Amino acid sequence: MTKQLYDYQNDENLDLFVLIKAADVRVAKNGKKFIAFVFQDRSGEISGKFWDAGQQDIAQYQTGKVVHLTGKRELYQGKPQIKIFKLHIAKAGEPQQPEQFLPKAPVDQTTLQDEINQAIFTITKPSWNRVVRWLLKQHQDTFFTYPAAKTNHHAFEGGLAYHTVSMLHLAKAICDEYPDIDRALVYAGVILHDMGKTIELSGPVATQYTLAGNLIGHIVLIDEGIVQACTALDIDLASEDMVLLRHVVLAHHGKHEYGSPVEPQLLEAEVLHHIDDLDASIQMLRGHLQHTTPGDFSDRIFGMDGRHFYAPQQPDQPEA
Amino acid sequence: MTKQLYDYQNDENLDLFVLIKAADVRVAKNGKKFIAFVFQDRSGEISGKFWDAGQQDIAQYQTGKVVHLTGKRELYQGKPQIKIFKLHIAKAGEPQQPEQFLPKAPVDQTTLQDEINQAIFTITKPSWNRVVRWLLKQHQDTFFTYPAAKTNHHAFEGGLAYHTVSMLHLAKAICDEYPDIDRALVYAGVILHDMGKTIELSGPVATQYTLAGNLIGHIVLIDEGIVQACTALDIDLASEDMVLLRHVVLAHHGKHEYGSPVEPQLLEAEVLHHIDDLDASIQMLRGHLQHTTPGDFSDRIFGMDGRHFYAPQQPDQPEA
Amino acid sequence: MTKQLYDYQNDENLDLFVLIKAADVRVAKNGKKFIAFVFQDRSGEISGKFWDAGQQDIAQYQTGKVVHLTGKRELYQGKPQIKIFKLHIAKAGEPQQPEQFLPKAPVDQTTLQDEINQAIFTITKPSWNRVVRWLLKQHQDTFFTYPAAKTNHHAFEGGLAYHTVSMLHLAKAICDEYPDIDRALVYAGVILHDMGKTIELSGPVATQYTLAGNLIGHIVLIDEGIVQACTALDIDLASEDMVLLRHVVLAHHGKHEYGSPVEPQLLEAEVLHHIDDLDASIQMLRGHLQHTTPGDFSDRIFGMDGRHFYAPQQPDQPEA
Amino acid sequence: MTKQLYDYQNDENLDLFVLIKAADVRVAKNGKKFIAFVFQDRSGEISGKFWDAGQQDIAQYQTGKVVHLTGKRELYQGKPQIKIFKLHIAKAGEPQQPEQFLPKAPVDQTTLQDEINQAIFTITKPSWNRVVRWLLKQHQDTFFTYPAAKTNHHAFEGGLAYHTVSMLHLAKAICDEYPDIDRALVYAGVILHDMGKTIELSGPVATQYTLAGNLIGHIVLIDEGIVQACTALDIDLASEDMVLLRHVVLAHHGKHEYGSPVEPQLLEAEVLHHIDDLDASIQMLRGHLQHTTPGDFSDRIFGMDGRHFYAPQQPDQPEA
Amino acid sequence: MTKQLYDYQNDENLDLFVLIKAADVRVAKNGKKFIAFVFQDRSGEISGKFWDAGQQDIAQYQTGKVVHLTGKRELYQGKPQIKIFKLHIAKAGEPQQPEQFLPKAPVDQTTLQDEINQAIFTITKPSWNRVVRWLLKQHQDTFFTYPAAKTNHHAFEGGLAYHTVSMLHLAKAICDEYPDIDRALVYAGVILHDMGKTIELSGPVATQYTLAGNLIGHIVLIDEGIVQACTALDIDLASEDMVLLRHVVLAHHGKHEYGSPVEPQLLEAEVLHHIDDLDASIQMLRGHLQHTTPGDFSDRIFGMDGRHFYAPQQPDQPEA
Amino acid sequence: MTKQLYDYQNDENLDLFVLIKAADVRVAKNGKKFIAFVFQDRSGEISGKFWDAGQQDIAQYQTGKVVHLTGKRELYQGKPQIKIFKLHIAKAGEPQQPEQFLPKAPVDQTTLQDEINQAIFTITKPSWNRVVRWLLKQHQDTFFTYPAAKTNHHAFEGGLAYHTVSMLHLAKAICDEYPDIDRALVYAGVILHDMGKTIELSGPVATQYTLAGNLIGHIVLIDEGIVQACTALDIDLASEDMVLLRHVVLAHHGKHEYGSPVEPQLLEAEVLHHIDDLDASIQMLRGHLQHTTPGDFSDRIFGMDGRHFYAPQQPDQPEA
Questions:
Q1: Which domain-ending residue is among A80, A101, A122?
Q2: What is the CATH classification number for the domain harbouring F263?
Q3: Could you tell me if B198 and B177 lie in one domain?
Q4: How far apart are CA F268 and CA C262, in angstroms?
Q5: Inter-residue contact F180 to E286 (CB < 8 Å)
Q6: Per the count of CB atoms within 10 A, which of C49, D152, D261, F292 is most buried?
């Protein structure tokens, strides 16, 4: 198996294919241009600077290109970076698919699809079941490849479906523990809650917000989907069933200030909000702790109120 | 012209027809029941207590009934109240329509309709024009009779349309002053922004929030309307036009914490939010100052951060 | 089986034994004294007024006494209350144990003890295991009978242990889902996190805050316990193990403003905070929804930012 | 007509006179000094770096000087900047007046003066009329040349009077719509509300806060003016008239946290606050949108809570 | 010495002269009127109800009257109240001066005047010294009799001067400890900081806010005084001296949200704010703890964020 | 006496020994490494850059080393910095003790010890006296050398004890002014309140937070000390005395959001919080104003909500 970016140690020479995730052209103080790269493969991302960049360099080394890179991994202000020796665009016969270099959900797409289909069987209220299936079909292609966010948590290919499936696992445990929770409503809410991100975001590569993402937002975008599903399926939008389903989805950010137009007023809406928050927090922390040396603190994490987290030196042995 | 509730002075005997706005049955400390009434006519509302209420009294004197009332207006803890002498349900030949006793917008419905129709001519972008007309037609009956709120501002019959028309006047002045504002977008936004209240609220008499009003809210309810209009009119929901229109409506509360799922990111959205806030504030203040004696402060107003407002003793002569 | 307070309908006469939960003596507007009672049994609590109370009534009908009550259940301002016909203190041969009338955890104490003992086996780090067992032994008597709060959630006999066990169930599901969480640390944190409430609160009957509860609080009170355990067991307080365990407990309220002297800086501390918040919220909501008629909203709940919650009319059939 | 800074395209050579708005001397990483310029003319501002600056360069190229500039407009990190070819101080016969290069209010000073004089006629309460005229005379020279702010909105020569006149237009429309507003008080408040900025700020060129501006602030500085006017004009400061006028001015920031020592407690104070906020917001947005390409978002705007604003691709045709 | 209100025990009959501090006429549930009194003497205040009040009773027993009261002190819902046996208006030969019944500063007026005069000697900067003396002379009569607040802290006759002198003592200690503080500026700030309350409040009996107090506030009212002093004494308002003095006074609430138009930007302004806050807090707590039984908590105190304070059972012996 | 860093003027050559407080290795835009130094002696700190740093330079010029420096003091972007001519590590016979270059409390250690011992005599409650003495003995070595903070206030050797003694002086003045304050409790609280910083911080040189400092914090760390003292001295932790002492220490940050697990509920806790805040604020301001030119504003101070402070041009003559 080929070595990846994070398989190299600091001060070790490296020789591998990587994806250009970002390529900012800047002017150095000597007046010459350089390119500030972020290279990426499935092990993570590292930056590196390409000095004295000519017109041709700028023209060819662009975001989304796969390149062959030789250089050295160094430590700079506590963070790894690449000192670039040589660079060339991947040629015929060399790896050229950007998708091969994108981090992915740790579970494959088929498994995710199976789990979601399984959960849909448990949505016993017919109207909710039909709406969920109709919308899943509409967004089939994107739902299983999109990330769940631009940065922060689950910002990788398939992250959206992976986040959804993790939440279904938590939902199952919670519904088992508290039998008066309406399991069908929670499951339907989990599957739909972030599906609007397939419109809010531009896709898994070089993820950006779309115009509708900025001006309408994924919460209302999936509510629009439910409205359309009801029209298509001839379901009464004014029925209690549909009001409940829409509420659960609309309220899932938990508070107005986080962008929900209504705050949870159903037990199931409160539960969905907690599950979402819990999975997002854990996934964000894991991402940061994964690159933190035991005995150190992580960077301060913007999405966690600027807190930093400690990686213990001697964690308890996890169950073998 | 018949005298109304606020035409009587304190300590004056009164004899008139009023509407029962509220009728709470309570137990006095002597163990007997009494009814705590709120009586209402177009001049305002005053409370009064009916002691030693029997079963029959409780059965007949209910919210929404018109009654003939004789009694005396008194001052109790700084507020007017009615000492009830006699009460009977309005009989045949006496006024019996609750609507006759509801406060109304100071402008008649025909004028309001004319003004709104006039404004629609100015919405020169065809897609917005069609959506506005389609939705206005859908909600024609309720839009011109509903209040704009349960309490606070414009809480009277026709208040919703009156609020809309006042805002159109302000919108006109602002668009005249700043020509780079897109007038059509502001006008469309003004007309639609609170139209969801026809679903959020139960109606002009004894106004309550509906289930959809509580769990979805008027902002998303009218967004649903726009989605349905586009389906019916075959307008592309993903077009920039529709994203802009929905944004303007969704953002009109100005901040997440006031229930907008997105915050203004268009000049016209910012303007709409200001106009709404301005008209609502002025209308709320006028309502409170109208019953404040010159030289006194009003009650503390919940919707204005608990501030009280002063009614000057010698206001400048308004232009004759 | 005897009928309990909530087995009676409104306007039905009742005849049963209840516990006096509160007995406030007040002066009626006719100058005579009355007692404002709150009666309680395992089905819930209802208030009632005892008019024209004499010296002897006041002397005997005190908080904590079991009484025989005949009266009628009525509706007053939307809430049930008791119209008292007759009252006497429970006599020899009648039920007299206050404990019989206290609401209880829905799981018996033996089961709770078993579950907690089982969880302790999973705390594989010896130092944590010893500290948890030492403290559980110290607080053995109170830990399984105390409520988890004065009001709000789990405010019933055995509520503290029941809350702990529910959280252990959630912890298990979460640790199963995310294998890099240190299960031993989470379990130890769950068992200890609220154990200081055995000092903070006065006990299961007529629960009050103690002086130490008010001035020190349960978070620091159990931290004190860990310090004492380490002294007794000769464990190094400065070791990483103990710093981690104390952190997890100290940070469990999640934010400074909720009374944690430090905010979570360990993955496990973040997880513990979420589990605590989730179980407390669900339990609080269940308590309120249990007495809400389907199709209505509950009262506004102080501990949920004043939100009210809706009880659906036609919930999905829970799995049989 | 000569081409100005924003008349040139990116990658086009330029040759024009500009004003040096800022000239920071810095040390490059090669140890040599360079000057970081901001050049300005009436079309806007662009930065540019002057490498290897000698003592004489530093001595002559200072803030406030007019220079002849040849160079090239380039794009750097998404923003335009000037690559400097040659620079010399404007010589005899060349344009040398800094004022010629300052952005100005879009309306000339005579028109602004006329409009304000016209408004004063409408202030029918004699005491307010006299105070306003007395203060306007005191600050005549500066009031019509100062900006309304250091940065943010109306930060150009004449901006203060322009902001005042725009607000008078809005005030007129609002007073026309709601006849119970005291027009004289609103007009007086509009004219005075920001007049203290003539003391708070240093002037239209290289605007800074003065010591009194920092330590006392423009709100109290104009209140001081009203006190002095009353002394000079022998008007009773304790009269209701003067208390109302001072209140309207003191409360115009709307909330304590924005620096008003009192919050609006008069209808007219509430109205003045809204008008000020509305005009400032629109003017700020226009400034940012003017340099935003249609289809793009502006920079995030500090004075609008960090929001960015979208410039639509196909705005509706403004009325011709 | 005559016994006062707080010299009587609960359930003890009392017979004494008191001042009527408040006399609210209300209607009992039997339809008859009663007067809800608050009686006051220098030991504190207690409420009491006068049942079946006739027209004559209501006419004569008004706020500000001295009455002879016989009755019984009782405990009602944890608070003392008076059961009234008999009441009559004080007759000729009986005490009739309301001032005799008002709580007073614990230090007499002459001492307060001496201390303030002494402090003025230490204000070595001539301009500050003259302004302070000029203003003190203007407000001589009220400054030594007014309270420092309507409720909360120092709400007693002479409270304003007493608060000022306590602060001078603290100021002396702080200036001794940190010699780089400008003592003259702190002393001048202490003496002036609340002097505007002589205009903001109506006086020591039945204290209310005046119109100017509500609409302008004591901070700007004393700033007005400094402006007038400078005019009268021909001192340059634009001098650094006067800017500093005004700043210290304007900023003494410490934050915008507490009503200061500017926040402290001078060491001396920061110090003045702390001294004010410290003395106000201690005085407020002493007032509440004085009537709290050792071993109990006080009421929750509005001005201290709703906290309650504990009165220890066994306080350390204060130095004899 | 040798000249120190702040004895030199800008543009003056310097030649002196200094301590390396920080030495960050960075890569210049020409690809070569340089060291960004912060040099320090008792007069303050100044930064300087060492260009073209070789491996040996990086190896020897490390934090904590004393070096001989020749160079020139320059002004760069308004702040002084050193242009380095030559550098060498201090040799035998040259000053080599880092401690000699650390800023120190302005009072010597013996005086601080005497003052604290004197204060302990005044703690007349035996239990508090014994606990304070026991803990002072435990932390004797560190208490008198540690700083009171990493940055902000009292961040110098001996700062912790100096802060404590300044607070004792203020405490004395306050207890003299308000005799109902329990002096013994305030003094005990002052001495203990920050003693946990001896565990929270790493020491006076290159001060960092320890793991226990981050995860437990100094407030709980000294509470742990009180628990241990009680065990060692056989004092009852549940006694009122100990609950009060712990409360005063735990509550000294004043609010939950500043990290206190309980908020002040004792007069003495409120007083301690104020004294701490007052001394910290003054000390922080003095530090910033000391390097501010008269007539200028200081930098914006993070610990004072980002405010800047003005250094007056003509301060009043302090008493000679």
A1: A101
A2: 1.10.3210
A3: yes
A4: 24
A5: yes
A6: D261
Cα C97 to chain centroid distance, Å, stands at: 20
Residue A86 CB: number of other CB atoms within 10 A? 10
- Asked if A65 and A88 touch (Cβ cutoff 8 Å), the reply is no
B66 membership: H or E segment, kind and range: strand B66-76
Q: Are residues C82 and C124 in the same domain?
A: no
Total number of domains in chain C: 2
Question: Do the Cβ atoms of B282 and D264 come within 8 Å?
Answer: no
Q: Is A11 left (phi over 0), alpha (psi -120 to 50) or beta?
A: left
Out of A28, A76, A310, whose CB is closest to F29? A28
Token code pair at residue D2: 């000569």
Token pair of E35 as six digits: 């007067």
The answer to whether the CB of C27 falls within 8 A of the CB of C33 is yes
Q: What's residue F95's pLDDT?
A: 87
Q: Is the pair C, D in contact (3+ CB pairs within 8 Å)?
A: no
Give the whole-angstrom CA distance, residue B274 versus residue B282.
12
- Between CA A4 and CA A2 the distance in angstroms is 6
Q: Please judge whether F310 and D214 are an interchain contact, meaning their C-beta atoms are less than 8 angstroms apart.
A: yes
**F173 touches A at CB < 8 Å:** no
Residues C172, B123: Cα–Cα separation, whole Å: 60
The verdict on C27 touching E (C-beta cutoff 8 Å) is yes
Residue B16 DSSP class: E
Domain that holds residue F184: 109-284
Q: Is residue E139 part of a domain?
A: yes
Instruction: Kindly determine whether residue D258 and residue E262, on different chains, have CB atoms separated by under 8 Å.
Output: no
ipTM for this model: 0.85
Locus of tokens 């309908």: C9
For residue range D240-294, list pLDDT tens digits in order.
999 999 999 999 999 999 999 999 999 999 999 999 999 999 999 998 898 788 9
Residue D96 DSSP SS3: coil
- For residue range F263-312, list pLDDT tens digits in order: 999 999 999 999 999 999 999 999 889 878 899 998 888 889 899 999 99
Taking residue F176's Cβ as centre, other Cβ atoms within 10 Å add up to 13
**Cβ atoms within 10 Å, residue C142:** 17
Residues A114 and A225 in one domain: yes
Domain assignment present for residue E296? The answer is: no
Measured CA to CA, the distance from residue D71 to residue A191 in angstroms comes to: 57
Residues A140, A88 share a domain: no
pLDDT for res F77: 63
- Listed residue (B21, B60, B33, B30) closest to C76, CA to CA: B33
Interface contact D76-A24, CB threshold 8 A: no
Q: Are the CB atoms for D39 and D16 separated by under 8 Å?
A: no
Q: For chains A and F, what is the number of CB pairs under 8 angstroms? A: 16
Q: Is E130 on the interface with F (CB under 8 A)?
A: no
In angstroms, rounded to a whole number, what is the distance separating the alpha carbons of residues B218 and B212? 8
Question: Would an 8 Å CB–CB cutoff place D76 in contact with chain A?
Answer: yes
Give CA–CA dist C235/C133, Å, rounded: 14
Distance from CA of F16 to the nearest CA of C (A): 42
Residue B298 within any structural domain of the chain: no
Q: What is the CATH number of the domain that holds B55?
A: 2.40.50.140
Instruction: Please list the rounded mean pLDDT of every run of 10 residues in chain C (320 residues).
Output: 83 90 78 85 87 88 90 78 91 85 85 95 96 96 90 79 96 94 97 96 85 96 97 96 98 96 97 97 90 88 91 63
Phi and psi based region of residue B117 (left: phi greater than 0; alpha: psi -120 to 50; beta: remaining): alpha
Q: Do A148 and A40 fall within a single domain?
A: no
Q: Does the residue B308 lie in any domain? A: no
Nearest to F65 by CA among F81, F80, F50, F83: F50
Residue among E286, A27, A142 at smallest CA distance from F270 = E286
Across the interface, of D220, D231, D257, the residue whose CB is closest to E220 is D220
Q: Which of D135, D138, D202, D215 to mutate to test the interface with E (most CBs of E within 10 A)?
A: D215
